[in-house]
Amino acid sequence: MTSPVRRIAICTGGGDAPGLNAVIRAATISAMALGWEVYGIREGFNGIFYPERFPEGGVFRLTRDKVRGITHLGGTILGTTNKGNPCHFPLRMPDGTFREVDRTGDILEYFAKHDLDALISVGGDGSLTIANALAEKGLRVVGVPKTIDNDLDKTYTTFGFDSAVSFATECLDRLHSTAESHQRVMVVEVMGRYAGWIALHAGISGSAHAILIPEIPFDLNKVVDKIRSRDGHGRMYSLIMVAEGAAPRDGDRLVAAGAEIGHAERLGGIGDQVAKALQGKTGKDARVVVLGHLLRGGSPTTFDRLAALRFGAAAVRALNEGQSGVMVALSVTGVNYVPLAEVAGRMKAVPLDGDTIQTARNLGICLGD
Ligand code: F6P
After folding, report:
1. What's the chain's average pLDDT?
2. Helix residue spans in 215-269 (DSSP H)
3. Average pLDDT of 72-79?
4. What residue owns the CA closest to ligand 1's atom 10?
5. 198 lines ligand 1 (CB under 6 A)
6. Number of helices and strands (H, E) in the chain?
7. What pLDDT shows up at residue 260?
8. pLDDT-based confidence at residue 241 (cuts at 50, 70, 90)
9. Which residues, listed in sequence order, are joined to residue 187 by a DSSP beta bridge?
10. Ligand 1 within 6 A of CB of 162
């Protein structure tokens, strides 16, 4: 029989997303109500690996005061990092080169030494894969799904996604008038990594005329046909939404920076390429707007706040019920728990037979195929 939980730690890892602070607040208050002590680990696991970097403590006590008034704030009061994955940690050698080492053992050791009973790990695919590895090594862990990309499997959605989509939609709303005034083609590049969720949902909601996503390799001539057809009907401007991971049928996705030990490759540049090619092929003035990290900033929407608060409270309930190695997930009927092993390393792509894709087609939006 496992010992009761008394002291827990929370960490946030990977790219930040609106709603992280709401999770931290809900988990802290729920745990304190059970009489538990709650600690925050700074910058993923850096607070454990590099305590000297944090004069106020790499791992610090989360109190009611520390989590007061943070529900609506973007970012994370714990800080985060998408470098230094503990499973593939880049250890600097005396000659300046890096060697990959597994530092999960150091995390388990830290928890044992400081009488920490459990971890709530808030993150995307990378962080949840790390959480699963820690659970397999015997740490009590509950994961909370976070990412603006919405690419995590086994949950209806992740918090952060709605905020990103709402912002991207507003940007499209604003671009219609300037594009129309100048009779231009405006290309909007959005994040999303290897999935097209943000581009598709914002593109439909913001009335883009073409949407290019990684799940559908595109033929640019189809977009050219769409622009020409609009011109033929006196609609002299077009808005093209492009996911950063989108790629032409005869080419590869664009990588802005290659992968290194401990962190993934960075995508970007396809918007610029598409805009230049469309200008060349149509003779129309084309501009690109890259929304990039703007999608990760700002306040969480009401949907994301509530999802994040529900996730944080549910993570504590899971630990209190004796669960471990699970992720809190959202279904249409409410929160539930799924094994971390079923989420780790898996990606949820946009289903091509889903009704959202069908809706785009019904509306006459060009998907590049
Ligand atoms: O996973 C979230 C995300 O914002 C992706 O959409 C994007 O590809 C990546 O992170 C960008 O990472 P970075 O903050 O390292 O530029």
Report:
1. 97
2. 220-232
3. 98
4. 15
5. no
6. 10, 15
7. 85
8. very high
9. 240, 288
10. no
Helices 161-182 and 197-205 pack at an angle, to 10 degrees, of 50
Q: Is the CB of 195 under 6 A from ligand 1?
A: no
Name the H helices within the chain.
20-33, 46-49, 104-113, 125-136, 161-182, 197-205, 220-232, 270-282, 302-320, 355-362
How many A from CA of 211 to the centre of ligand 1? 20
State the average pLDDT over residues 283-292: 98
Closest CA to 287 of 173, 206, 187, 176: 187
> How remote is the CA of residue 310 from the centroid of ligand 1, in Å?
24
Q: Whose CA is nearest to atom 11 of ligand 1?
A: 266
Distances 279 to 186, 276, 284 between C-alpha atoms, Å: 10, 5, 5
Tokens for 188? 């909007």
The CA distance from 365 to 174, in Å, is 19
> What's residue 1's pLDDT?
55
Ligand 1 contact via 64 beta carbon (within 6 Å): no
Cα–Cα distance measured from residue 263 to residue 143, given in angstroms and rounded to the nearest whole number: 20
Ligand 1 centroid from CA 281, angstroms: 31
Cβ of 151 less than 6 Å from ligand 1:
no
The one-letter amino acid code at 276 reads: K
Confidence (pLDDT) at 92 = 87
* C-beta atoms surrounding 104 within 10 Å: 18
Is the CB of residue 213 less than 8 Å from the CB of residue 350? yes
Q: What percent of the chain has pLDDT over 70?
A: 100
Tracing tokens 């995307």 back to the chain, one arrives at 124
Among 202, 279, 280, CA closest to 242: 202
Percentage of residues in the chain having pLDDT higher than 90: 96
Ligand 1 in reach of 267 Cβ (< 6 A): yes
Of these residues, 16, 149, 151, 162, which one is catalytic? 149
pTM: 0.97
Counting from 1 in the atom list of ligand 1, the atom nearest the Cα of 264 is 15
> Phi/psi zone of residue 99: left (φ > 0), alpha (ψ -120 to 50 degrees), beta?
beta
Q: How confident is the model at residue 212 (pLDDT cuts 50, 70, 90)?
A: very high
What is the rounded distance in angstroms from the CA atom of residue 246 to the CA atom of residue 361?
Answer: 18
